[in-house]
Amino acid sequence: MPDSLTRSYSSHISVNLASRRLTYYERERVKKVYPVGVGKPSTPTPTGNYSIVEKIVNPGGMLGSRWMGLSIQQGNYGIHGTNNPSSIGGYVSHGCIRMYNQDVEELFPNVQIGTPVNIHSGAAELGQEDIHNNTHNMTTNHTIQAGETLWEIAERYGKTLNQILQANQISDPDVIYPGQQIIIPG
């Protein structure tokens, strides 16, 4: 992200459309990485450098529990929760960036009006060195949703079932429950 966009802000957000991950930074350090759902091929999420222009608590319906509007001129785009948690991780929206409600609720108080948001198409734009520096040994938290299995979660994050089991000290992969927080190893 160009220095001019982050110079006056202590935090910023980067959205990688290829990996469907939103990364929240504070003072150029990764604070948290979240899985997201992004625009489908017919209604893609616009790439570019934007900012947060609006914040709404409980916008309702398909927007979930929080809405953070983006400064994208050609439409009404935002980062928001969802009433369809199974859509997270896919190319599913009309261009918005969907998050699990508990994730957007965690991020929301840290984001201010004016916070820079960089949306990019994927790894090639960042460069391999940046990817390695930003993701090496990083962990992500995941909240298990109704109907999810550890096998599906492992596949979604590109991990083996054993990596998930070991990181969470789980002995039986069939004994999980909705709302349970698990660690996805870096």
From TrEMBL:
Pathway connected to this protein: Cell wall biogenesis; peptidoglycan biosynthesis
Parts of the chain that traverse the membrane: none
Protein's GO biological process: cell wall organization; peptidoglycan-protein cross-linking; regulation of cell shape
Coiled-coil annotated spans: none
Matching Gene3D superfamilies: L,D-transpeptidase catalytic domain-like (2.40.440.10), LysM domain (3.10.350.10)
L,D-TPase catalytic domain location: 11-120
Recorded superkingdom: Bacteria
GO CC terms in record: extracellular region
Keyword Glycosyltransferase in record: yes
Domain LysM: 140-184
Active site: 80, 96
GO terms, molecular function: glycosyltransferase activity; peptidoglycan L,D-transpeptidase activity
Annotated keywords: Cell shape, Cell wall biogenesis/degradation, Glycosyltransferase, Hydrolase, Peptidoglycan synthesis, Transferase
Record InterPro entries: LD-transpeptidase (IPR050979), LD_TPept_cat_dom (IPR005490), LysM (IPR018392), LysM_dom_sf (IPR036779), Transpep_catalytic_dom (IPR038063)
Family: Belongs to the YkuD family.
Protein's name in the database: L,D-transpeptidase family protein
Native organism: Pelotomaculum isophthalicicum JI
